[in-house]
């Protein structure tokens, strides 16, 4: 019988982790997580990782934040607004300096198959992220993957916030994916229907028709603010809508009522930075 080979991936990440996160744990059995959205807040991070240690700020070079995919949890929790397209969640994607030929195609890069997970941008400003350690047990890794099911998991090398020097340890980050890769890697048809089809979602990644989920965006802004002025500035000015041009600062200036958005009472504490 001929050997079945996996389909080639649309996106190829250097330093992508396997589903055991092999090589990420340190000598003490801990792994580092780089947070870039709601995990910018230690209080928020402890909802998900109650045993985290050494919460601090850091930098991540060569990546940008973008609201360009949707999340099933927003529909399940009643905070998605499909009528206005405000259903988008946050990921990070690799960037490179823009070139004359790249700038013309930047807006379509999310849906065009590529061989590398790199997209052009006009800014190479480092992202301010949170960093913290959690146990790197088989159960904790499996729970992490189940919770962040739609993402790709990539090992990155964060830097010190003040001087930008490498910290000498790798961290896992939740990176952008494509629907083709997601379906092939982790979400066969029955699982897709259970997670996404039940909400009427036909596409998760590569969405040009989505805006940030209002309650989640407010939550992320407050989380960034709690980490300090550098983190807040980074989130506002180095985070983009799905067009990869409009910053969150510009989006909020157009619709400041987003910061008055209140989640349902059951989520009022959790979605509050």
As for the number of domains, it is 1
Beta strand count: 11
Approximate helicity band: 25-40%
Strand content: 15-25%
Distance linking N and C termini: 55 Å
CATH class: Alpha Beta
Name the average pLDDT.
Answer: 89
As an assembly, this protein is: single chain
Count of DSSP-assigned helices: 9
Q: Biggest sheet: strands side by side, in what order? A: 7-9-1-6-2-8
Stretches where pLDDT falls below 50 for ≥5 residues?
A: 97-116
Any idea what the radius of gyration is?
A: 18 Å
Specify the CATH architecture: Roll
Tell me about the largest β-sheet: 6 strands, mixed
So, the CATH homologous superfamily? Gamma-glutamyl cyclotransferase-like
Estimated structural class: alpha/beta
Q: Judging from the principal axes of the Cα atoms, what is the shape?
A: globular
Please provide a written account of the structure.
- The chain has 9 helices and 11 strands.
- By secondary structure, it is α/β, with parallel strands linked by helices.
- The protein has a single domain, classed as Hypothetical upf0131 protein ytfp (Roll).
- The chain is globular and about 50 Å long.
- The model is unreliable at 97-116 (pLDDT under 50).
Ordered list of secondary-structure elements with their pairings:
Blueprint: E1 30-35, H1 42-48, E2 53-60, E3 63-70, H2 72-76, E4 86-97, H3 100-105, E5 118-121, E6 127-135, H4 138-147, E7 152-156, E8 159-160, E9 171-175, H5 179-185, H6 189-195, E10 211-212, H7 214-227, H8 229-237, E11 239-240, H9 248-254
Parallel strand pairs: 1-9, 3-11, 4-5, 4-10
Antiparallel strand pairs: 1-6, 2-6, 2-8, 3-4, 7-9
Helix pairs in contact: 7-8
Region (Disordered): 101-121
